[in-house]
Amino acid sequence: MVQEMKNKLLISKLDAVKRQLETAIRIYFSSGDPVSIHTLTAAAYNVVRDLNKKLGGGKLLVKEEFLDYIKEGHEKEVRELINRAENFFKHADRDHDSTIEFNPAQSEFLILEACSVYARLSGEFPPLFKLYQSWFIANHQDCFKFPDDQRDIISLGSPEVIRLGKEGYFNFALPIMSKLYLHG
User: Fold this and answer.
1) Cα distances (angstroms) measured from residue 92 to each of 86, 95, 99
2) pTM of the full predicted structure?
3) How far is Cα 102 from Cα 83, in angstroms, rounded to an integer?
4) End-to-end CA distance of the chain
5) DSSP letter at 179?
6) CA distances (Å), 83 to each of 62, 76, 100, 173, in order?
7) How far apart are CA 144 and CA 160, in angstroms?
8) In a 10 Å sphere around its CB, with 0-12 CB exposed, 13-18 middle and 19+ buried, how is residue 71 labelled?
9) Considering only CA atoms, which of 96, 55, 100, 54 is closest in space to residue 80?
10) Distance (Å) of CA 58 to CA 21, 48, 53, 133, 183
11) DSSP H/E element including 182
12) Looking only at Cα atoms, what is the longest distance across the chain?
């Protein structure tokens, strides 16, 4: 006989997204398993994409707006390419004996966009999300414009801090982010 669980959790969709992304970010900064990072991130991304659509938000860049720039007739091919790793990691119905060549960097932009959409939908931008955002921007500074109100985050991406590596950056920046965004 199966015993009933004593401690049940009441979880909203946004709660699930936050938990999945925070876990993926912690695994990312500890140089943990890239498959787990991608699987958690893709699950969270799909939920925020669906919630965003239900609430009348605009298209998301990675899995929606990007497809607007694909030549007619190639949309399915590109969509499958975008979702290939995600589907490979969670299904085995058609390809039980196959392998995949996976680039873990493809998870990084998904994390960034999922965190941003979560913040817009929930009105909350958790410290771990800010930490990831600052790391991502700091490591791709040549790609971004920096508004004046973001200087506190960008300063955490100085070359000296980035040289600490992912784990060192996490340990250095998390207390600062927590203080700035939970108590400030």
Assistant:
1) 12, 5, 11
2) 0.82
3) 11
4) 50
5) I
6) 10, 10, 12, 32
7) 19
8) exposed
9) 100
10) 21, 12, 7, 21, 31
11) none
12) 61
Q: At which residue do the structure tokens 């921007």 appear?
A: 137
Residue with tokens 């004046």: 148
In single-letter form, the type of residue at position 96 comes to H
Q: Is the pLDDT of residue 141 over 80?
A: no
Query: pLDDT, tens digit, for every residue of 1-11?
Result: 455 667 889 99
- Read off the tokens for 128: 């771990």
Q: Which residue in the block uniquely carries the two structure tokens 């015993």?
A: 3
pLDDT tens track for 99-111: 999 999 989 989 9
Confidence of residue 48 (pLDDT cuts 50, 70, 90): very high
| Burial 143-164, CB ≥16 within 10 A → b, else e | eeeeeeeeeebbebbeeebbee
> Is the separation of the CB atoms in 44 and 20 below 8 Å?
yes
Yes or no: say if 136 and 32 are a contact pair by the CB < 8 Å rule.
no
C-beta of residue 48 within 8 angstroms of C-beta of residue 12: no
Radius of gyration of the chain (CA): 18
